[in-house]
Amino acid sequence: MGRITHELVSIGAQCKGERHEQTIGRQREALNELRARIKSLEQLRPVNPSYEKVLQQVVLLKRELAELRARQALPTDIPYLTTTPGSNSFNQQSTTTFRQSPSGTNTSDITPEAQKIIEERTAHAETMNTLQSCDELVSCFLRKNMRKNS
Fold this sequence. Notes:
By secondary structure, this protein is mainly alpha-helical. The chain has two domains: 1-45; 49-149. It has helices at residues 2-44, 49-73, 95-99, 112-149.
């Protein structure tokens, strides 16, 4: 009886081992299939729209913050250097316009302090416009880069 029991145990172990190998094989096939499906979904998936919306909101908020800071930095007694509500940048007046007073008189009518303020504000406006352009370029680059990597 010991010999029969031993043979039955070895046959049972062999069957159990074969089923185990079959189970592992099916699991490997399923895993490979899932990996292939994930790759195809990643390739077909569009750029995350929520990320792009957040990026646009960040750019808009930065622009608004820059405009608010610029408005706060501008003196209230020089009305032709203020920003217009809803605009994205300072009024696009030439430096010759800035050198003239609103009444059209020459630069000599403006005090040196006022002239210096005007020059500083003009430089500040140009810097803010350049910064805004850089922010837009960076966000555009990031969007294109995200589309490539998706």
